[in-house]
Model the fold of this input.
Amino acid sequence: MPSTKADAFIPYARQEIGDDDIAAVIAALKDPWLTTGPGVASFEADFCATTGASHAVAVSNGTAALHAAMRAIGVGPGDEVIVPAITFAASANAAVYEGATPIFADVEADTLLIDVNDAARRITMRTKAIVAVDYAGQPCDYTALHALCRAHGLKLIADACHAIGGSYKGRPVGTLADVSTFSFHPAKHITTGEGGMCTTADARMADTMRRFRNHGLDSDHRARAEKGAFTYDMVELGYNYRLTDLQCALGRTQIKRLAQFVARRQEIAAAYDQAFAGLNGVRALATRADCTHARHLYVIELDPEALGINRNAAYQFLRERGIGANVHYAPVHLFSFYRKRFGTREGMCPVAERAAENILTLPLFPGLTDAEIARVIAAVRALG
Ligand SMILES: *Cc1c(COP(=O)(O)O)cnc(C)c1O
Done:
């Protein structure tokens, strides 16, 4: 049956591309520099201006940003990196790329953010860094994380792929860790198709990440062209993780609308919060008063006993009504790769494992209409 507007499928996420974005990419196509051009530094400057970060390094995706962060803080073979069990696999994979061992920490039951006390218990002589994931868009407890890192001489990476536009105790996301990483995948707040960014207050780390995204070379193509030089040294093993000027042009028009996108996401989240408050068997994740939640994902935790229906059945129920529910995430330590390579197993992060059975992500993106919000709410109410 052809779907009408009233029952069209609502995805969990969708990008917002406007006429300004399209015009900017067309203009960028006519520029002599399609990559390694001046548009990259312009996007980086806009990113610093928006987040308050001192240095921003644009890379080809959020996973490359995490990889660059691992290199910048010197993660290597023999090191352990503590990562929350509930996150996208890339948060842990980046440590593996550099030969390190991810150690999975459990999460807080009410927010699904890294449980800092549990992370503390997993610190050993080999621990080099903690990856804090601002899950769903809510900043972690950075006061506690910094105290822990200071006490043990650890570096802190913020995987802020969900949290651009958020803040913690008045400090913007992007300035809360030694290195913060962002993604511009279409599901995220702003998009460049594929894309990522690292921010840091440390100029040397920024230099390291700039070199790392360009094969480990000591200069890039444009710097050589401007000097009329052709020689370069390769000082370490890097990758081609560059973001093109086309993508940076899109990023520049997208980031102009970030505040507007975040405000609309917060409005939708507030409507869901209000609708689900007191609803038996459905609990929204807890939010902390001392931060601005960037609202990337709207996650509910179901109580299957109270609802008389389990999560997988609830997922099907919503899909049948055209609601694109999703699950973020299966615990990373239970993936077969991690079981085989690192011997991880059930029982290692019990809070994460239990929560992962019962969570559902509901549609949340700036273009969601009020009628669509009402459809999502009605469908969730009908679960019970
Ligand atoms: C999206 C995401 C990434 C990876 O970003 P890509 O741009 O898809 O490589 C990493 N961590 C988290 C938490 C993410 O949501």
User: Anything to note?
Assistant: The two ends are 28 Å apart (CA to CA).
